[in-house]
Amino acid sequence: MRVAGRRRSGRCLAALGLALAVLTGACAGSGAGSGNAKDPDATPTSASARAAAAQKQLAKNSLVPLEGPAPTPELPVTVDSSDGRRVTVTDASRILPLNGGVAEIVFTLGLGDRVVGRDITATFAEAKKLPQVTKAHDVSAESVLSLRPTVVLADTDTGPKEAVEQIRDAGIPVVVLDPATKLSDVTTRTTRIAQALGVPAAGKALDARMSAELAAARAGVPEDSRPKVAFLYMRGSAAVYLIGGKGSGADSLLAAAGAEDAGTAAGLDKPFTPITTEALAQAQPDVILMMTKGLESVGGLDGLLQIPGIAQTPAGMNRRVVDMEDGVLLSFGPRTPLVIDILVDRIHRA
């Protein structure tokens, strides 16, 4: 993650066809650990120190699983699927998550050695060598079946539907999950995945870990600071220029980081709205938040300032643009507390 101008972006973007994608409780048992994602002997207390540690961890592009031995699935289990079905899982020896955020949770629960394939959005280091079963976010039923999974984890917008039905018709349990579009969805998603894989105690332990990390990150929010931050989704090569509003997903992250979502404050009641000079003038963001590839696609900070209306905002005039890697910013998973650590520090800087 970088702050442009000083150094040089499975999921809430569902409306854009992207798979992008709190927390209380404590527990132990079934082999589940409950350690923190950072070394407890070196846990920084200031916002800047936490942000530096978070940035270092994200730069590794690697996950931090729960401490202790990997949990042993207790099966069979029957769970509710978000497509209205009841699904029985009898074997979790070959898990196939069809979303990058879901894969992050599976790996962090300690079940990564059971994962046999990946979705295009699973870009973290532990998953890169796994065979990819999607193309342009569409699932290949043939590729899935060739991996002989014993359970498939999908989202409500996983498609095409014919491919999902073909996988199910082959006798493979398919558990469908609701997409995570806000911070409060993370605990529900983690709990449901852990239950479907027969490791509910590990799910509670991960929820407790993330809860503690988020609380520590929020403690660094200055009491007298509430900047207005606009989330801009851009793909310059495709002429896509959007500003986030209510339900974009970024609004939830910004609220947790002690900021006000500029699009929502300007009355944008849709997740995304085409950028216009009028919308930017109404939003008047102090800071602009973007995905790294989106910022690069418009030519970096200098290119961004050439887009009509950007340079006239307080963020543009002060060159205050924060960007973060695409697969992390809106993943809503185990690495989300690291995102909040960074946002708390970066968006409140003078």
TrEMBL record:
The Fe/B12 periplasmic-binding domain extends over: 94-350
Low complexity bias located where? 42-51
* Signal sequence interval, chain numbering: 1-28
Q: Mention any Pfam family matching this sequence.
A: Peripla_BP_2
Q: Where is this region: Disordered?
A: 32-51, 63-82
Q: Does the keyword Iron-sulfur apply?
A: no
Alphabetical keyword list: Signal
Q: Which domain of life is it from?
A: Bacteria
User: PANTHER family annotated for this entry?
Assistant: HEMIN-BINDING PERIPLASMIC PROTEIN HMUT, VITAMIN B12-BINDING PROTEIN
Q: Which family does it belong to?
A: Belongs to the bacterial solute-binding protein 8 family.
Q: What is this protein called?
A: ABC transporter substrate-binding protein
Organism in which the protein naturally occurs: Streptomyces asoensis
